[in-house]
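Protocol step 4 of 6: structure prediction from sequence.
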Amino acid sequence: MSSHSRRTAALLALPFLLAGCTAAVADSNPGGASKPSAAPATPPVLPSTAPTVATIPTLDSANDQPLPLDGYLMTPAQLDKVQKAQQRLITGCMARFGFTFSPPTSIPMPRDSGAPDSRTDGRYGRQNAALSAKWGYHAEGGTPASREKPGAADALLPAQEVAALRGTSDPNQRFGPGGQLINSQKVPEHGCVGEVNQQFTGSVTGLVGDAQFANDVKFATLDASQQDQRTKAVFATWSQCMARSGYDYPDPVKAAGDQQWFKGPLPDQHELQVATADAACRHENNVVGTWYAVDFAYQQATIAANAEKMAQVKAGLEHQVQLATQTLG
């Protein structure tokens, strides 16, 4: 399986927990908070050999367990605060041009009632047997019918308002260079979205929310932990356990990412049976405990190997949260 395919499978394994990143937004600097430089867009350095795992805990769920990356990725509460501040700053910018603007609110990604407070995803798939038996691989409560599509809400806005928002009124361009005069005010590069991006990230093209490098580390270490021989060994025994129930999957990622689960908003009986067997086989073979321990080791080693960039990531996260607190406070 290619690295891209494994990343896709990892994402599919967490459809009920993953939270979406905020849209790109951000040059003033309210409050004088120090502004971090953008992290270089280079891939993270992973350990050249499998890191040592001292102990493997017995776990059905690692959602309440710490991970080394927790301090470099926004918590759900931080992400919510930053998104709200981003919307308020865009609204304020648009008001300078004479527009009463309310940013569209997207439907938040669903999260299980047992999802971790320290990170936006559960990382190892659903880890609650009761929820598996009731909801299968679907989000708790079912899959939302639709989500807000980026750019869809401003399609019907007047041209000048779109120009103030995005720096261009050309429907074929997502963002533009700005420079237009609207109500005697000069539109910034990428419009108000770009201005707010600049405030949060130091770049008009920056993404508000988790740093790209932190996300790269998140997926690279998850991928590495899945390919580690210690994890593969428990995946193999899990697969044998599933086969005894009549289900043919090589690992839990493939089971959770089976496309047949995503054809409707609610699980069918077959999905519930597979998910129930999955949870039982995870418990029997300590899949989560082993996977978590290996993943923890890869995260720890990767953070150490990329110390300077990870320091930039942390500074960027702290800056965004500080700016959000000042904006909302």
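Step 5 (inspection) to follow. The chain has eleven helices and two strands.
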